[in-house]
Amino acid sequence: MGIDRCTPHPIATMTAPVKAGTFWDQAWNASVIWCRKSSNPPVAHQRRTADRLRGRWHELDTGHYPMLSEPVALVQLIAEE
Fold first, then answer.
1. Whole-structure pTM value
2. Given CA atoms 77, 46, 52, 14 in this order, what sign does their dihedral have?
């Protein structure tokens, strides 16, 4: 399943300040994939992000780690882009 390749999430992504600057003003070729069985990040946050990035919206019926639970479906979404 690939669990042997998983590593802990870097703590600085949760604690270090971020200066987004012009991040939201740029034109992004973005997609947001919401994992329906995951409570974090919540769907409202995911929707706001997709809207602000003017990104494509996708949903997978899986938890937070689709690369482990639904690797084929995830690859198909990525390959479509």
1. 0.75
2. negative
